[in-house]
Design goal:
Its EC number is 6.1.1.10. The chain contains 19 helices and 17 strands. The strands form five sheets. It has a six-stranded parallel sheet, with helices on both faces. Strands 5-4-8-10 form a four-stranded antiparallel sheet, with helices on one face. The relative contact order is 0.12.
């Protein structure tokens, strides 16, 4: 049976600060879904990267007294380092300053221009540097951008190129009528409302006199590409488009295309990007998954501009990669805002990893190594369909909850069956009970594959070798 092509991407963050826990959530969610698809035998391409152009980056490089390219090289490396920090399995890391991406963005521009969807006009309006876009009165809260309350919008007038998004209203509403294109459902409704009520043509270039850090526009050396227009193209340039001989055709043209994004990206990802694809005559995205924000103390959104972010590397150094992945994928909602505090993290770590999974594995493996000569024969297909169903619907939280339900039931089985007592009075019956526990533990280990890949490997190895852990899988933190 031929493998199905499955393509998954994250958004690409600006490289104007260190990575924080909010983007770690997006990366780990996408990684879990990519690992799951590989586990069930699909052919997967997982892409992430960095967005390295734009006014925010230009201004940040000036503040630090650095050349813009040197600045983005320095910060891009911090995002590349997340591969090891979070144990990510992506297939490509795309940078928007790469020659291949620049070529792709310029070719994409040509396609939209040839369709008649790009025009030039003078525009005067409020401009938010944080959003890197013109905003309207509807976007303001107390005179400031609702997404960047610490920054004052600028009044800007300049001649820019615009994209005729209005040409695609009918096609976009038809696209969004499919219930499978956006999860959760209320984000799809949000996208539909935006198309019906607030959708306008949008600016896709900036005058070089204001700043020159951007991709040059074909045929006009006075303007650079608006960061959003150029950055969107990463989703296909990472596959080698327009020169691809296989990857683009396999994964974008013919495969299932899934994108993971933050909830503030709805109009950008589900409307603007899809309209651009329609203009260029390329296939639209199959599914976009919108996660909520991670909030800190008092329910305040974590953001670089507010300065209340948590660095994922700090947590990994103390608790390990799998502990952070577990928390992000179970204790943080797949689709809604969720709080992240170190107290909450530590409580979940001790209860569910150290005392839960770790203690259960130690008890079973101690019994098996003492009373069984070898590991019982492991059936090839033992992963419950219910667990797969959750991940097929992108409900990562529920899949992890299901895994911990199995952990709880196995723990209850030990309490009630008392194999540690039975084996002393009836060796055969006791060994049978221990063998059953080993197989159930192995199934749990399999379900940890996308969520906690290191623990998955360690636990399966211990079970197959019939060895008890030399040290706890998770050390309790008091």
């Amino acid at each position: 049976m031929e493998k199905r092509a499955f393509y998954i991407t994250t958004t690409i963050p600006y490289v104007n600060a260190d990575p924080h826990i909010g983007f770690a959530l997006e990366l780990v969610q996408a990684d879990a879904l990519a690992r799951y698809q590989r586990l069930i035998g699909e052919d997967v391409f997982f892409s992430t990267g960095t967005d390295e152009y734009g006014q925010k980056i230009w201004e940040a490089s000036r503040r630090e007294g650095k050349d813009a390219q040197a600045y983005v090289d320095f910060y891009a490396q911090k995002f590349l380092d997340l591969k090891g920090i979070l144990n990510l399995s992506y297939d490509n890391f795309i940078r928007t300053t790469s020659a291949g991406h620049i070529k792709a963005a310029q070719e994409f521009w040509r396609l939209c221009n040839a369709k008649g969807d790009i025009y030039k006009k003078i525009y005067r309006g409020l401009y938010c540097v944080g959003c890197e876009k013109f905003i309207t009165e509807k976007d303001l809260m107390d005179g400031k951008c609702s997404l960047h309350p610490t920054q004052n919008p600028e009044m800007v007038e300049e001649e820019n190129y615009f994209f005729r998004l209005g040409n695609y209203k009918k096609e976009l509403l038809e696209y969004l009528s499919n219930e499978k294109v956006v999860f959760p459902e209320w984000r799809r409704i949000e996208a539909i409302d935006f198309v019906q009520d607030g959708m306008e043509d949008f600016s896709i270039s900036r005058d070089k006199k204001r700043f020159s850090w951007g991709i040059e526009i074909p045929g006009d050396d006075t303007q650079v590409m608006y960061v959003w227009f150029g950055a969107f193209v990463n989703y296909i340039s990472t596959l080698g488009w327009p020169d691809s001989h296989g990857a683009y055709e396999k994964f974008w043209q013919d495969g299932e295309k899934v994108q993971v994004a933050g909830k503030d990206m709805v109009k950008f990802q589900s409307v603007m990007w899809q309209g651009m694809l329609m203009s260029a005559g390329l296939p639209t995205t199959d599914t976009i998954l919108y996660h909520g924000f991670i909030t800190g103390e008092g329910g305040i959104k974590m953001s670089k501009s507010i300065g209340n972010v948590i660095n994922p590397n700090d947590i990994v150094k103390e608790y390990g990669r799998d502990a952070l992945r577990y928390f992000l994928l179970r204790e943080i909602s797949s689709f809604e805002d969720s709080p992240f505090t170190m107290e909450r993290f530590k409580e979940a770590y001790n209860a569910n990893l150290a005392n839960g999974l770790g203690n259960l594995a130690s008890r079973i493996l101690t019994l098996s190594s003492k009373h069984l000569e070898k590991c019982p024969e492991i059936p090839e297909h033992s992963i419950p369909q219910e667990w797969k169903d959750y991940l097929n619907k992108f409900e990562i939280n529920k899949a992890v909850d299901f895994t911990w339900k199995e952990i709880g039931e196995l723990d209850k089985f030990i309490q009630e069956a008392e194999p540690f007592k039975v084996v002393k009075v009836d060796a055969e019956k006791g060994k049978k009970l221990i063998s059953e526990m080993m197989l159930r533990l192995y199934t749990i280990a399999r379900m940890l594959n996308p969520i906690m890949p290191e623990t998955n490997v360690t636990l399966k190895k211990l079970i197959k070798e019939n060895k008890k852990p030399e040290k706890p899988l998770f050390l309790r933190k008091d």
